[in-house]
Structures are given as structure tokens and as C-alpha cells.
Specification:
There is one protein chain. By secondary structure, this protein is α+β, with helices and mostly antiparallel strands. Helices cover about 25% and strands about 25% of the residues. It contains 6 helices and 13 strands. The strands form 4 sheets. The chain has a 6-stranded mixed beta sheet with strand order 1-2-13-8-9-7. Strands 5-4-6 form a 3-stranded antiparallel beta sheet. Strands 3-10 form a two-stranded parallel ribbon.
């Protein structure tokens, strides 16, 4: 998840002000950034689709060579305030890297704010342990949705971005439309005339989705940068996301079984919505 308070506030305003009734044409609010309702669905468009690697075991490696940059999930703290891309657009990353290097060297993490992976009560990052996919080599990358029955303080508790097609939704959206963990959605990419099913599994900015969902849409989300595989190959063209708040495919520990459920519920939801033709019409 990327920092985006400004974008989240803008989305919140759209959520409050852009809803239309089900009786209107699906295409009435056409345009990037619009949020509207139609029948039993909530729809929105995004100009790009960024990649979210949260929940992937190799998202945040100790050596910094994970799918995410360390400073995707950490920012520096100066005088009690976070140093973000918004507050320090020119040097936030430099400050983050310096503060992180100092924190890991001294064991004092008060100079950073960690939000991309799990920490203990003293703000120290938690490592994966025995029973997790990469024990001792990676931090525990969390998602806002958890897997029932999985123990706290383990990577297994979170939704794996490499295995589950999920979308990211802002808290304001989740609250207003009563979205639950595992709420089903379908994502349509007009450029390639392709679509894929997904579930809600993480909180953050609009316009982000898991590695698996990008792959299901025919994209290549993991790219080689400086000799390291990074989840940075975003979709650069508009997508339509249709969320079905009443349709669920709740989290499961067995990712294969969960994917089957997502496809079953997604197919049923899309058929009830009006099928692929309706999806294409809404994505114009």
C-alpha cells in the first residue's frame, strides 16, 4: 500500500457525492475516479492499477530485496511527525532509508513509523518464524483481512498477494457500503477486454490490487529492477471495479479452495448483474 491521504480524502468525497440510483444508466457517471451504485453493486473506475504485495511472504525481506521496497512500508519520523511523500516530496525516501538504516543498526525504532509489516508493542518489526514460509529472512507482511484460525504473529494469518486475487479499498468505502472481508468483486480491463474475479482483503488507496489479480488480468506485475524482483509492474490503463457487498467468499486457509470459491461466487454475482455484456457496457 502506498501513502495517499490526499487521494483517500478525494475518494471519500466522491463516495458521498457521486452515488446514483439503480434505475439510471450504468454509464451515467462515466469518468475516471467516479463511484456509483447500480442494482446490487458498487462501481468505480481507476486510471491505473497499482500492485499490492502485502501478505506475500517475500514482500519485505530483511536485506531489502523483497517484492516491496522497505520504504513502501516505512517512513521516517522527525519531531514526532511522519516524513511522507506529501510533506517532503523531494527527500522523503532519502530520509526513510537513513532512518531505517539507523534503526536496524541500533535496535531503536522510534525514528521510524512502520505500517507495511507487523511490529511488537515497542515498534520493533516482527520476523517470520518456524512454520512460516521464509523464517528468519523476512518480516511479517500484513493485510487488513486475516485468515480465521491462523495464529497471531505469523505470516500464515494474512492473505497472500501471490495466491489470492484481491482488491484494496479505503476505509470510507468499506464503511459506507458495508463491505466485509471476502466481499466479491470483478475487475474489468477495457484495453484487453479481460476481466477477473477478486475479493476485498486489504485497506488502502483506491486503484491497487494483489499480484495474483494482476496476473489473472494478463498483466506482469513482478518486474526486474536493479537485479531484484519487485511488484511494480502496474497496469497503466483504466480499469472498472464492480463490488458486490452482498456476495461473499470468506477467507480460507486453503488458498486453492478459496480461489475456487471466489470464482464460483464471482461468476454467480456477474450473471446476476447482467453478465459480461453489462460489464463491458459499464466499462465504456
Amino acid at each position: 500500500m502506498n501513502s495517499g491521504t490526499k487521494a483517500l480524502l478525494a475518494l471519500t468525497a466522491l463516495i458521498v457525492n457521486s452515488t446514483v440510483t439503480a434505475g439510471q444508466s450504468c454509464g451515467t457517471p462515466a469518468g475516471i475516479g467516479k463511484v456509483w451504485t447500480h442494482a446490487d453493486a458498487v462501481l468505480f473506475t481507476s486510471g491505473v492499477l497499482n500492485v499490492d504485495a502485502d501478505g506475500a511472504p517475500n514482500a519485505y525481506l530483511l536485506d531489502g530485496k523483497g517484492l516491496s521496497y522497505t520504504c513502501d512500508g516505512v517512513v521516517a519520523v522527525e519531531n514526532g511527525k511522519r516524513v511522507t511523500p506529501k510533506t517532503h516530496p523531494k527527500d522523503w525516501q532519502q530520509k526513510c532509508n537513513a532512518s531505517w538504516a539507523l534503526a536496524t543498526k541500533t535496535g531503536d525504532y522510534r525514528g521510524v513509523a512502520i505500517f507495511g509489516f507487523q511490529t511488537d508493542k515497542n515498534n520493533r518489526p516482527l520476523l517470520q518464524e518456524e512454520g512460516d514460509p521464509v523464517p528468519g529472512k523476512a518480516y511479517i507482511s500484513a493485510t487488513s483481512v486475516v485468515i480465521p484460525g491462523m495464529p497471531e504473529g505469523t505470516q500464515r494469518r494474512y492473505v497472500d498477494a501471490l495466491k489470492i486475487p484481491y482488491i484494496v479499498l479505503p476505509p470510507a468505502f468499506v464503511s459506507k457500503y458495508e463491505v466485509k472481508p471476502g466481499t466479491v468483486s470483478v475487475v474489468y480491463r477495457k484495453k484487453t477486454n479481460s476481466y477477473a474475479f477478486a475479493v476485498f482483503a486489504d485497506s488502502g488507496d483506491i486503484g491497487e490490487a494483489s499480484v495474483k489479480l494482476h496476473q489473472d488480468l494478463g498483466s506482469t506485475p513482478i518486474v526486474r529492477i536493479g537485479g531484484v524482483d519487485r511488484a511494480k509492474g502496474r497496469i497503466e490503463d483504466p480499469v472498472l471495479v464492480v463490488v458486490f457487498p452482498a456476495r461473499m467468499a470468506g477467507p480460507m486457509a486453503n488458498s486453492d479452495a478459496w480461489n475456487v470459491k471466489i470464482k464460483e461466487e464471482g461468476t454467480a454475482a456477474l450473471e446476476s448483474f447482467g453478465g459480461v455484456e453489462k460489464l463491458i457496457a459499464c466499462g465504456k
